[in-house]
Amino acid sequence: MKITAALVKELRERTGAGMMECKKALVGHSGDIEAAIEAMRKSGQAKAAKKAGRIAAEGLIVIQQNNSQATMVEVNCETDFVSKGDDFKNFCKTVGSTLLHKNPKNLEVLMAMPLEGFKKTIEEARKELIAKLGENINVRRFAMVDVVSDNCLGVYLHGTRIGVLVSMQGGNTQLAKDVAMHIAASRPLCVSKDFVPAETIAKEKEIFTAQAVESGKPAPIIEKMVEGRLNKFLNEITLLGQPFVKDPDQTVEKLLKTSNASVTHFERFEVGDGIEKKTDNFADEVKQLQEAN
User: Fold this and answer.
1) Between vectors from CA 228 to CA 204 and to CA 16, what angle results, nearest 5°?
2) Among candidate residues 267, 264, 244, 246, the one with its CA nearest the CA of residue 254
3) 76 versus 47: which is more confidently predicted?
4) Which of 83, 182, 243, 254 could form a disulfide with 250 if both were Cys (CB 3.0 to 4.6 A apart)?
5) What contacts 100, CB < 8 A, 6 or more positions away?
6) Cβ–Cβ under 8 Å, residues 202 and 210
């Protein structure tokens, strides 16, 4: 695989390592960026394994609710200018209303539904908007949370770019909203350790073991080091293990227990999360790589 300047740049952004270290790691792993990151973390070269692609596209998050459910949809466009225009905002709002009232099973079904108040489908309206605005428009994803008798629903929209829905048993609406605000700020991947994929735990354990071995300490000490680092990692990525944003002296788990509440499910959308934004100017990186060859 050709090691492009764009690939080197992405690895630099995700690890904080130098350009030549990144290029060397990519060459050594045939351009596999994930394998390169894992190897760099094991050797201690990577300063931080950041997630790539956050806020890499423009658009809006729209949340709507009624007495029985809440819905959330992300609609993307190419520029911040278009996302602030009335045409785009009205389209997003109407898609959200259609979603709330029609309960589609998946995105394909949603796109084939008539846009609320119109005869044309959402897909047809999307294509018309593309022609009018001159940008690509995409209804990317949606989530729905039902309100049942023993549940509280937490809803939080941070501006127009981050949205959270939380389903909670016990507690009250204010607590559910506070937890939703926490999720918006702290980005947990799942509710608890029980929901972390086994392969994720195994990979992190392997990395932590490789790092601990470098210390030269005895095996029993290394085992405890790995266990401690793994527990810290799991607390950082799970809702229950994180310090509550409004009161960092207690975890979210402790907060919920004091109210005899539990989070059964949550959804967090951030505009452009995971979408790689196109970058056209890599002149400096290309020049440096050419000079290094």
Assistant:
1) 50
2) 244
3) 76
4) 254
5) 64, 65, 66, 69, 71
6) no
Q: Where does the pLDDT of residue 13 fall: very low under 50, low under 70, confident under 90, or very high at 90 and above? A: confident
Beta-bridge partners for 121:
114
| Token pair recorded at residue 150 | 């023993």
Nearest alpha-carbon partner for 284 in 4, 2, 5 = 5
Dihedral class, residue 16 (left if φ above 0, else alpha if ψ from -120 to 50, else beta)? left
Q: Which residue has the tokens 């690509």?
A: 136
Return the ∠ at Cα 142 (arms to 141 and 143), rounded to 5°: 140
Angle at which helix 33-43 crosses helix 5-15, to 10 degrees, equals 40
Task: Give the pLDDT of residue 132.
Answer: 82
Q: Give the other-Cβ count within 10 Å of 85's Cβ.
A: 14
Q: Is 17 helix (H, G, I), strand (E, B) or coil?
A: coil
Domains of the chain: 1-52+276-293 (1.10.8.10), 58-190+262-270 (3.30.479.20)
H/E run at residue 250: strand 247-251
pLDDT tens sequence across 20-31: 778 888 998 888
Among 33-47, 164-178, 250-264, 279-293, name the one with the lowest average pLDDT. 279-293
Q: Are 70 and 104 in contact (CB under 8 A)?
A: no
**Residue 10 above 70 pLDDT?**
yes
Give the whole-angstrom CA distance, residue 152 versus residue 30.
Answer: 50
Say what the pTM is.
Answer: 0.73
